[in-house]
User: Which sequence fits this backbone?
């Protein structure tokens, strides 16, 4: 569909790195598992170390879709929650100050270090987690009563960009996060 993308992986030693090198964990890099990305040098070059984010923010060269994965410490898997909080306090203001975010961008923060195994809905398991939806387009302070899962986030992005719904994002049971967004005069989110 012509949208640009880049994945920023904290503590990844080099672009398109295959394997784990603690505190970087390959299991948190979904892109490297796709042959049509990993085996294509042009696409694979879009999986970069997180250190590139600061330069891209400064140069205002962020792609349309940005994926950010903190390392195993800053995602609080291996370190205290305070460590992850400090990481967010450093990076969220930088992202929110960017022209990319100010120009109707959306920042989704998903914290998936939940406790327990109870899921929210039909396709969810492994515990309930929080997702923040931060955008000039969302209703300030809105909290949804609708249960969502990771497929809901995928469906939200696919619908916004007119893309086909992949896998479980296309299940009628998967609701997009559309209730967060303010309706325009044309009735669209």
Assistant:
């Amino acid at each position: 569909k012509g949208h640009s993308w880049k994945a920023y992986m904290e503590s990844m030693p080099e672009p398109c790195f295959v394997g784990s090198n603690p505190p970087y964990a390959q299991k948190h890099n979904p892109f490297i598992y796709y042959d049509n990305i990993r085996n294509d040098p042009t696409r694979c070059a879009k999986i970069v170390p997180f250190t590139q984010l600061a330069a891209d923010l400064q140069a205002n060269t962020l792609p349309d879709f940005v994926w950010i994965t903190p390392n195993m410490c800053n995602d609080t898997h291996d370190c205290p929650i305070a460590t992850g909080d400090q990481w967010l306090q450093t990076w969220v203001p930088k992202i929110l100050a960017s022209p990319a975010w100010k120009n109707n961008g959306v920042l989704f923060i998903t914290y998936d270090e939940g406790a327990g195994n109870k899921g929210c809905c039909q396709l969810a398991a492994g515990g309930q987690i929080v997702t923040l939806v931060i955008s000039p387009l969302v209703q300030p302070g809105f909290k949804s009563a609708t249960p969502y899962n990771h497929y809901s986030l995928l469906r939200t992005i696919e619908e916004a960009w007119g893309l086909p719904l992949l896998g479980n994002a296309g299940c009628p049971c998967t609701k997009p996060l559309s209730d967060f967004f303010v309706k325009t005069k044309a009735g669209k989110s």
About this structure: The chain has a mean pLDDT of 90. The first strand starts at residue 5 and ends at 9. Strands lie at 5-9, 47-49, 65-69, 107-111, 130-134. The radius of gyration is 17 Å.
